[in-house]
From TrEMBL, chain A:
This is Uncharacterized protein.
From TrEMBL, chain B:
PANTHER family: BILIVERDIN REDUCTASE A. InterPro entries: Gfo/Idh/MocA-like_OxRdtase_N (IPR000683), Gfo/Idh/MocA_Oxidoreductases (IPR051450), GFO_IDH_MocA-like_dom (IPR055170), NAD(P)-bd_dom_sf (IPR036291). This is Putative dehydrogenase. Residues 128-248 form the GFO/IDH/MocA-like oxidoreductase domain. Gene3D superfamilies: Dihydrodipicolinate Reductase, domain 2, NAD(P)-binding Rossmann-like Domain. It comes from Aquisalibacillus elongatus. It comes from the Bacteria. Residues 8-118 form the Gfo/Idh/MocA-like oxidoreductase N-terminal domain.
Length: 207, 328
């Protein structure tokens, strides 16, 4: 049985997998692949895998490649996220931190400030990296990433790098469905990670 | 108007001296620098008399002075200038500690002389335009800021805490905090920061990230560092994103540039800035301020509040938690 992938059909390149805009998760026998921006609290009883846009985007993959070439993880990582249609910000922020942990190692300290639709997450990693991620939850998507390290300064800005001048780069940010299925992981792994971080206690709540 | 310059220890002194030479009816009239070798070199470069003692320098006919010494000598020079009734433009940061800054402010008030702090970013054309757009309500209410001020390691006395009072976090936080305070007419309530030395083999900090909250609830992130390499296309950056309830605007004070790809020599790209000279605008404003005997656009108090945030960042890093900076 092929899985049901919930997501933006314009972004996901697929042959014959079932991609749907939304799902009510009625069928208990189905396996659902859900983007982290659509994850909500009450999905624990469903067979849900989650996939995260950041880990699938080519610019972030390329950044990771260069950062892994650094002789030391002492450096400053900054990421700017504008996100449209996020059901519960803690799952997106949690998934970002989960992804960054795979790059920078264990966080030593996490500090968070939130106001209205904007959150700032500041992380100090055990291996030295300091990171700032700024989120605004509003009506469009945007991503920029910067790394200032010992070997490299890396910069990605969705607007500057767009092959089109309409600033709609996310429509050309294609996600390969096989990559998506390989990178997805059980929802429980994300919820357990977020519980450990205690993001709700830090001030990130459902929108 | 006759302007004296006190110390060329800070590299900005050269830009300010060039600006003075561009303004009609303004004369770079005398230089004080107690580094004899530097004084001689500067005197020759600008064709002006240089003095190595305060007595000789203040015997000259001067209306005002510009101070570009090491940070820890700002207080000493400001007090000397104020004692001699000279109006003052002092390089940032105002001082290396709050007590010195307050003494400087109080004494200048007593002596009835102007004390302006050199925050040229306030005179950046894009930054000024953004201020107008905010005041006109185009962005709605401000929700948050996101800023950067990153540059190269200036070396020399900058990396000696005795003279500088702090590294990149002090050097590159005060500008952007000043802009945020100006945009909001509010003070930073608390500061959380991570500070470290990453990029250079120096004991002083060269990297820091700050998370701040203002009394009115606006939050801000700031990246201050000396992380730019010599081969990076430009010296550094000054950027600010303002997140509003109606729209977000990102402003880059040095975005206006042409790309230069030299065919010979080091094969790398350089950005050649073509925007307005914010240092010139700063100096013109100071001159006008003295002529009109008005309150400075950027006061000693502004300098003190920006300094306070940077010092709170160091404190936050030391104790591992956020620091209360200003009681609302």
């Amino acid at each position: 049985m092929s899985p049901i992938i919930v997501g933006d059909r314009r972004k996901i390149t697929s042959n014959n997998e079932m991609i749907v805009d939304d799902s009510d998760f009625k069928d208990q026998n189905e396996v659902y692949y859900l983007p982290t921006e659509r994850v909500v609290e009450n999905l624990a009883n469903h067979n849900v895998y989650v996939y995260h846009d950041l880990s699938l985007y080519a610019p972030f993959q390329k950044m990771k490649h260069y950062i892994k070439e650094e002789t030391s993880l002492k450096g400053v990582f900054r990421m700017r996220r504008l996100l449209n249609h996020v059901d519960d910000p803690q799952f997106v922020i949690g998934a970002d931190l989960f992804e960054l942990e795979s790059l920078f190692g264990k966080p030593e300290k996490i500090y968070l400030k939130s106001t209205q639709n904007h959150s700032i997450v500041s992380v100090r990693y055990v291996d030295g990296t300091m990171a700032h991620v700024d989120y605004t939850f509003q009506t469009k998507d945007y991503l920029s990433i910067e790394w200032s390290g010992l070997k490299y300064i890396l910069e990605f800005d969705q607007h500057d790098m767009s092959p089109f001048d309409e600033h709609n780069y996310f429509e050309s940010f294609q996600i390969d469905v096989d990559h998506l299925l390989n990178e997805a992981y059980p929802l429980e792994r994300l919820t357990n990670y977020i519980s450990r971080l205690d993001l709700a206690e830090l001030g990130v709540n459902g929108s | 108007m006759k302007i004296g310059m006190m110390s060329f220890a800070h590299m900005h002194a050269h830009s300010y001296a060039d600006c003075l030479n561009e303004i009609e009816h303004v004369e770079l009239a005398a230089i004080f620098d107690d580094d004899r070798e530097r004084a001689d070199q500067i005197a020759k470069q600008y064709d002006v008399e240089a003095y190595t003692t305060y007595e000789e320098f203040f015997e000259q006919d001067l209306d005002a002075v510009i101070i570009c010494s090491e940070n820890n000598r700002h207080k000493e020079m400001v007090l000397e200038a104020a004692k001699h009734q000279k109006h003052i433009l002092c390089e940032k940061p105002i001082a290396t500690n709050i007590e010195d800054a307050q003494v400087m402010i109080n004494y200048c008030e007593e002596q009835n002389v102007i004390l302006q702090i050199a925050f040229p970013v306030r005179f950046s054309s894009p930054i000024m335009e953004l201020k107008v757009r905010i005041d006109q309500g185009e962005l709605g209410d401000i929700v948050a800021f996101r800023s950067t001020n990153r540059g190269q390691n200036p070396g020399g006395w900058f990396v000696d805490e005795h003279y500088s009072g702090g590294g990149a976090v002090l050097d590159h936080t005060v500008h952007m905090v000043d802009i945020m305070r100006w945009f909001l007419s509010d003070e930073v309530k608390d500061v959380h920061a991570y500070v470290d030395s990453f990029f250079h083999d120096v004991e002083i900090d060269d990297a820091g990230i700050l998370t701040m909250e203002f009394n009115n609830g606006v939050i801000a992130s700031h990246d201050a560092s000396w992380s730019r390499y010599v081969d990076y296309p430009t010296w550094g950056d000054v950027t600010l994103e303002v997140i509003g309830t109606k729209k977000n605007v990102v402003v880059d004070a040095f975005k206006e540039h042409i790309n230069v790809y030299p065919k010979q020599g080091p094969n790398h790209l350089t950005f050649d800035f073509v925007g307005h000279n914010m240092d010139l605008a700063l100096i013109k404003d100071f001159i006008q301020c003295v002529e009109e005997k008005r309150q400075p656009f950027i006061s000693g108090h502004d300098g003190l509040k920006a300094l306070q945030v940077a010092l709170c960042a160091y404190q936050s890093n030391d104790i591992g938690q956020s620091v209360r900076c200003h009681e609302g």
